[in-house]
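4.2 Preliminary Data

To establish feasibility before requesting continued support, the project team ran the inverse folding procedure on a target of 185 residues. The structure was first converted into the token representation described in Section 3, and no sequence information of any kind was made available to the design step. The complete token record follows.
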């Protein structure tokens, strides 16, 4: 498999990010979220969401980071990490979303995205109850279920909270490559 490059997504990427998001959700959540809800996902609707997410992440007042892994200029994974949004947040940072194309599972893309975006920060996240693959992955990165659950009215499912304390940086997989970094703003 070719190497990936991690970089902040740009406005020109939003349609392909929306397509990735729809494909990942339809694959990963089959049997965990009602099928009509997954079937209703559309790239067109996702374009607006990802355009807003990319724009907010690059604004001067942003409170989150978005990074994507690209192969041949097509996204194969995307992560959004930001300040905690929950009133009772157990940690300072929240992994808001992590989506990786199925054919890239187990290749180090998700781990590299986590390393790039989270570093050594303490963090928490919400994972769909029953998503054993994701729970196992997050456990490898030091996250543990903390017993908190919430019901998602939109997706009609339960989420479980996982958290980890601050720790050393993740080991970035050797197959990844990073885009050159420009000057800091």
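Position-by-position output of the design step:
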């Amino acid at each position: 498999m070719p190497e990936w490059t991690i970089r902040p997504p740009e406005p020109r990427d939003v349609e392909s990010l929306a397509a990735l998001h729809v494909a990942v959700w339809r694959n990963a959540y089959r049997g965990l979220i009602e099928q009509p809800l997954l079937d209703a996902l559309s790239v067109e609707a996702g374009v607006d969401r990802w355009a807003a997410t990319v724009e907010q992440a690059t604004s001067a007042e942003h409170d989150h980071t978005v990074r994507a892994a690209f192969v041949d200029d097509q996204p194969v994974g995307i992560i959004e990490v930001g300040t905690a949004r929950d009133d009772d947040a157990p940690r300072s940072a929240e992994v808001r979303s992590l989506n990786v194309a199925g054919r890239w599972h187990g290749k180090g893309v998700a781990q590299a995205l986590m390393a790039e975006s989270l570093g050594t920060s303490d963090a928490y996240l919400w994972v769909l109850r029953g998503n054993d693959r994701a729970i196992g992955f997050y456990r490898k990165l030091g996250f543990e279920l903390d017993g908190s659950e919430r019901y998602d009215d939109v997706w009609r499912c339960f989420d479980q909270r996982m958290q980890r304390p601050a720790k050393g940086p993740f080991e970035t997989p050797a197959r990844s490559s990073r885009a050159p970094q420009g000057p800091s703003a």
